[in-house]
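Quick one: sequence plus NAP SMILES, need structure tokens.
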Amino acid sequence: MNRWKNRWAVITGASAGIGWALAEQLAVGGAKLVLTARRRDRLDQLAEKLGADHHATVEVFPVDLAKPGAAAELVAFTHGKGIEVDLLINNAGFGAYGEFHKRSLDRFRDMVQVNVSAVVELTHRYLAGMIERRCGDIMIVASTAAFQPVPYISCYAATKGFDLLFAEGLAEEVRRYGIRVLALCPGPTDTEFSAVAGESQRHFRFAEKADKVARTGLEALSAGKTYVVSGWLNYLQVHAERLAPRPFIARSAAAVLSPSDHDDQ
Ligand SMILES: NC(=O)c1ccc[n+]([C@@H]2O[C@H](COP(=O)([O-])OP(=O)(O)OC[C@H]3O[C@@H](n4cnc5c(N)ncnc54)[C@H](OP(=O)(O)O)[C@@H]3O)[C@@H](O)[C@H]2O)c1
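Reply:
Sure thing.
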């Protein structure tokens, strides 16, 4: 993680799960951090911990990325502090499990805003400075759900499909400016994600730890990869599925993910 020693990293969704783990690992490597999410108390707690454990320099900026204008506020905050961002981690995101028509439209609007629009906006705004300096790295947290249709999390999977394609395409565009872009694709991971999505724990039986997923992402970005799937089984699954007809994959996923009486939707 020494690649980012004494450099500034912005991490969205740092108040929990994979974002929290990314912050800890970057602090160990000597990076300076801007932590953002909605829950200020969690961000303050993490900042205090990273300061005490690793003497990390940390700024905290709570913001709701579902609100239009929030991404611009975050960028104005870092510019106002004279912070040159060399690593942007677009990690904030959430899902919503269940039949699409039974969940509120507002939830899906917010999901597209956080998982897609804020990612595009933060990437565009921070990329300008990176290109000027010919230096910068961007990580976008996608998902194994990005590789195929996934019934009962259809909208979420589509947002992650966007994240994956956006990251891979952009990586090739900006390579000539010395900038790296990576899509990190975790499979089920032990975080607050399932509770927020309202998804049954039975879908997370073989979940990876957030620390492991974060390390996989940072190592892949350091190595110059443009995407990485965390976990060998997840890797085999997404690539094996690509060989099968798409309707078959969608139908099989529907059979596994269909809400049952045991699910607390
Ligand atoms: N866990 C999994 O199984 C899994 C699998 C594949 C991909 N992923 C992806 O991994 C990323 C991190 O998720 P996680 O698993 O670590 O889940 P998590 O523990 O629920 O963390 C999600 C983070 O996103 C932040 N966030 C959510 N809505 C936000 C908003 N409106 N504005 C600002 N921040 C917001 C949350 O902070 P606040 O609530 O404080 O705002 C939190 O810090 C997400 O993009 C997710 O799609 C997760």
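Residues 48 and 62 are 15 Å apart (CA to CA). The beta strands are 8-12, 32-36, 58-60, 85-90, 136-141, 179-185, 189-190, 208-209, 227-229.
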